[in-house]
Each structure stands twice: as structure tokens, then as C-alpha cells.
Amino acid sequence: MRGRLMMGALVSVSVLGLGAMAGAPLLAQQGPESLLPPGFDRPARQARPSPTPRPAASSTPRAAASPRPVAAAPSPAPTRAAPAPRIDLPENEPTIAAQPLIAAAPTAPVAVGPVKLPTGVTSYAQLMALPPDKLDQLLGLRPRYDIPPGSARALRQVGVIDQSEGGLPSTLNSQNYDLLRAALTGNGGQMVSRWGHILLRRALVSRLDPPGGGDPADFVAMRVALLLRMGEGDLARAVAQDVDPDNYNPALTAAALDSYVATEDFTGFCPIMGVQPAFAKDPRWNAMQGMCDAFSGNAAGGFANLDHMIFVGAMPRIDMQLALKYAGAAGTAGRSGRRNVTVEWDKVAEMTPWRYALTLAVGLTPPAKLMQDLPAQYDYVTATAPMVGLGLRADASDRAGGAGILSSSAMVDLYSQIYANDDVTGNPADRALLLRDAYVAGTPADRLKAMKGLWDGGADANQRYARQVLTAYAAARLPVSGDYAGDAGDLIASMLAAGLDANALRWSGVVPKGSLGWALLALADGRGGEASTGDLSSFAGADKSDSSRKTAFLVAGLSGLGRISDSTRRDYAGKLSVDFDGRSRWSEAIDQAAALNNQTLVVMLAGLGMQGDSWGRMTPRYLYHIVSALNRVGLGAEARMIAAEAVARA
């Protein structure tokens, strides 16, 4: 719909008394309008001739003005049946003429002739067939930035956390650009380790300088794209927003578009569309252009664009229906901005990220059949989307919490909202009750029972670990007692899932030597010291994991942290048939980065080596190199948490 601007004028009239011969000008509309309330107009009197105005004293003669007719003011209807009061005016009252406030400028003659078309356009029809952004570019209508050079941001130190705030060092200038590109583009985003995910995320959002040898915008685009593959849509968008839109290149524009879609923020991308050329091969661009037009007030143009896409079949019908519904949410006044769009799911066979994001953005719930057996990224979006119901977010939080996207505190906050909301029922409400008991049940035994109920309620090992993330702070509140020594391994694993190593170490005097609890504390202890080979042997003898993987991971972690000798590592390599010292291009690269004390590169290479959907994808050799490299560059705390997580989840 089209808005109108109402213009008003302030008119003041001054009657100066006897002898005043000129009145203030009024704004001419349909005629002079009375400014008095009803009943205070001039009363009807016999007609009298208006006095002729005398010219004001002037030293310069001027031509006599042509007489102007004075339109009669319309008399408003009286509010009640009563005669209007009589007000006598001076006999020489001046006549007030209606004149415009600003004299109209003389109209210049319009030259009529051929219109010059832009270069490369030969006809009007060809001009009108161009896409809107191309047409704006040809006619010079695209918006321009007026940021002073001193205020514009350079493509350096791009990120959201500085080194002083916990970020990693920014200097990457001396690094091999091809190696960095391989580490970023070769990572699929899903990692076996929760702590590995957290550490890589920290590196990607740090304020980093671009490495030499490549386009700085490409380096940002690779970081944004990897964050998206990791399920970190909000942080991906934040990193993209740290670059001025006029510095985007095609790769960064594409990555930014995906980040805005992943966060259901379609209109947030509109300013970027105004300064970047369209992606002719990506129909999402044209659809977003239509939605942006609707939200900017041009609903007619926006809907026309979307209708044309439906006509030519640019996107599946369900996608266009959702786009139309989103555009209609602009609430623009007029018939063109109010459409009753029905979203039809009957013939839809699959869910896509674009489709799911638009569904959430318009406040709909997708059919349950389309949400079955989807990749983990959909749960990551669901768990962090504020418009989704609390129950659905709680169900999705298992995956998000286990992967490292949600912290333990965030999960507790979510279940606290569920506990306080009586409208949420079913399994999420039951888990909220158990979590409350894990914190405030009357006895420590009851609190431990509630925690075990949450752990054992997980459908698989990954979900069980996510519930341990949820109960980390409840486990830290449990008093240390030999009565619970049999459950100490799970309690310690739960605390370490949230990094509560100091709380976990309180159990060091209770856990049996050679037990799972002992192994986790041997890795998590930040005080260092050599581990007992006798206790290690006891752990290996009681290990019932497949192919003694827990023992292999324990040896790899202890060796990487420098807590067992090289001879002990080689001894267990023979017993377990594991080659801890095997070499590869990846192991040589991460060892060399550690030798150069480059934290950021070590983390990126460690993330490359931790890809997989379960710890079954991780090898003890890779774990050894990762823990060793991280420990050598000053990331010992992260190395200890990754090693302990490997043993707990193997």
C-alpha cells in the first residue's frame, strides 16, 4: 500500500487596529477557511462595500495589482439551535486576500527530444526487462555509503572477541595461506569433541588479521561458512557483520546470506542487498529482494517480484508460499500488502534450511513427518530459536548441548523456564522436575538418584553425555563421600563437561585407583605430575571398552600432556597395537605449528583432525598429536578437557 504525507500550514492574522491597510497572506486551498470555533463566525449583516486598500508608503513606484476575487469562507454548521452572537467590527476593517505563501516559479519550457539510453541498452523494452538491482546500477540509483575514510573499517582484526577478552592471537600474516584454507574449507563442521567444538569456535570468532597471499574477504567468508557448518549461525552472522558491506566479495556475500537465513533474519540482509550485485543463479536472492521491498514500503513491487518467480517456477511452491507469507508480515497498509497466504504442506517431501528458517520466521510449526531423521543442524537451529516452543527447544537441546553449542548454564536456564511454565507438559516437563530434584532434593542420595534418572534417560551415548552437561553444576554441589564412589566416574565426567575441574578434583581422595574416576582426574589435574604406571596398568586390566579404546585414549592423553614417559607410551603401543607416533601431512603440519607457537593455526588444524559424529571416528594417534600440540602452545586447560572427554565418551 502507498502512504500519504499530509502537509499543513500555520497561518496567523494580525488586526492592528484603525488605519491598518494590509493583511498577512493566507494559504490558498479551496478558499480561506474560518479559524473560529462554530458559532463565532461573522454574523449575517447587510452587505457593505469593502474599502479599497491604500498602498503602503514606498519610495519605489510599482505597477497596480489586478484585483483578486475573494472566495467566501464556508460557514460551519452550528452545534446547537441558537442565534450566532453579533460582533461589531470597525467600519474600516481591511479585506484579507487569499494568497499563496510562496510564489510559484515561472514554468520553464520543457525540451522534447530523444531520450539517451544507458550504454549497452538499445531499447526501452530491454531496459525494463533488467532486474531491479541492475536497473538501479545503470541509472545510478544504488545507495552509496558516506562513511568518512577515517571511520570505515579495514579488513583486519575481523571478529567479535579480542585477545584481551579471551580470543586467540590475531597474527596470521606469516602463515601459509593454502594451509589455512585447507584447514577451514576441509572441515565439515561436525566434531567428535564438545570441547574441540568450543575451542575451534573461539578461534573462528577471534579478531584475526588476514593471512598474506589471499583476499582478506575470502578469509572471512571461510570462517563464516565453517561456523555455519558447525551450527553456530548467530556467531557466523556476527562475524560477517564486522565487515562493511561495501567490502564484501561474492564469497563473503554468499556466506553472509546463509548466515542470515540460518538465524531467520531475512530482513537483516536487506542493507547488504542494496550495495552488492545479485546472484543470478541463486533464486533465494530474488525472493529476499521481494521480501525486502515489502518491508521497505514497496509492497506492490515486492509481491510482483514474488508472483513472477512463482509464474516461472524459480523455486518450489512451498518456498514461495512461505516467502509471500513473510512479505505479507510487513503489515504495509493497502490492499497490495494484505494477502491471505495458505501454506500447503501436503505435497512437500523434505525439509530444507531455507524452508525451515522461513517456517519459524512466520510463526508456523512444520509437520512432524518432515522433522524426522534430520541432520543435527536442524536441532541446533531449534534449540537457539527464541520463537520455538520451550518443549521443542528442550528436545533439541540434547544435541546442541552435547555438541558444545549450548553451555550447561544455558541448558539449565531453558529447563528453569519449563519448570515455571505449567503449559509445557510431557517429557520436557518431567526432565525439568528431575533437574530440580538434582539440585534441591532432601538428601544427597535423592539428588544423585535424580541425576542418574536424567543420564539413563538418554536414548544413546551422545544424549547421555548431553544430560551430563545439563547436570554439571548439580554434580558439583554433591558432597564428596565414599558412599558414592561407584558413581564417581559419571559425576566427575559431568563436572568436566562444563569445565568444573576444581570441583572434580575434590573427589581425588575417594575414587579407587585405576577406576574411571581416577583416569579422568589424572587427565584433568592442572597441577601436572607423572601418572602412576601401576594405576594405569590397573585401569587397562579392567577396561571393557571395544578394543580397549579407553586405555588407548588415556595413554594418548597422558603422553600428550607429558605425564607418562615415551617408553611407557611405546610399551602400550605394542600392547594395544596402536601407532601413536605415525606421521602424516596433517600431523607434520600441526606439530610444526606448535613448534612455531601459533595457537590459532594449531586450533584450526586440531579442529580438522577431530571431525566425525562420534568418538569412534577418532584415532588415539590423532588424539595424541592434538593434545600434545595444544599443550605446547599454552592451551593446556583445553587439552586436558579434550583428553578427559575422550576417555569418558570412548
Short descriptors:
650 residues, single chain, disordered N terminus, mainly alpha
Radius of gyration: 37 Å
Uncertain spans: 1-105
Strand content: under 5%
Q: Biggest β-sheet, characterized?
A: none
Order of helices and strands: HHHHHHHHHHHHHHHHHHHHHHHHHHHHH
Q: How many extended strands?
A: 0
**What is the count of DSSP helices, taking H or I runs of 4+ residues?**
29
**Quaternary structure state of the chains depicted:** single chain
- Rounded mean pLDDT score: 83
- Helicity range of the residues? 40-55%
Overall SS class: mainly alpha
How many angstroms does the end-to-end distance come to?
Answer: 61 Å
Q: So what's the overall shape?
A: globular
Q: How would you explain this protein's 3D organization?
A:
By secondary structure, the protein is mainly alpha-helical. The protein has helices at about 125-130, 130-140, 175-185, 195-205, 215-230, 235-240, 250-260, 270-275, 285-295, 300-310, 315-330, 355-360, 375-385, 390-405, 410-420, 425-440, 445-455, 460-470, 470-475, 490-495, 500-505, 515-525, 535-540, 550-560, 565-575, 585-595, 600-610, 620-630, 635-650. The protein is globular.
Task: Write a brief structural summary.
47% of the residues lie in helices and 0% in strands.
Topology:
Blueprint: H1 124-128, H2 132-138, H3 177-185, H4 194-204, H5 216-229, H6 233-241, H7 250-262, H8 270-273, H9 283-295, H10 299-312, H11 317-328, H12 353-361, H13 376-384, H14 390-403, H15 408-420, H16 427-440, H17 444-456, H18 461-470, H19 472-477, H20 488-497, H21 501-504, H22 516-524, H23 533-542, H24 549-560, H25 566-576, H26 585-595, H27 599-609, H28 620-632, H29 636-649
Helix pairs in contact: 4-27, 4-29, 5-6, 5-7, 6-7, 9-10, 9-11, 10-11, 11-12, 13-14, 14-15, 14-18, 15-16, 16-17, 17-18, 18-20, 20-22, 20-29, 22-29, 24-25, 24-28, 24-29, 26-27, 26-28, 27-28, 28-29
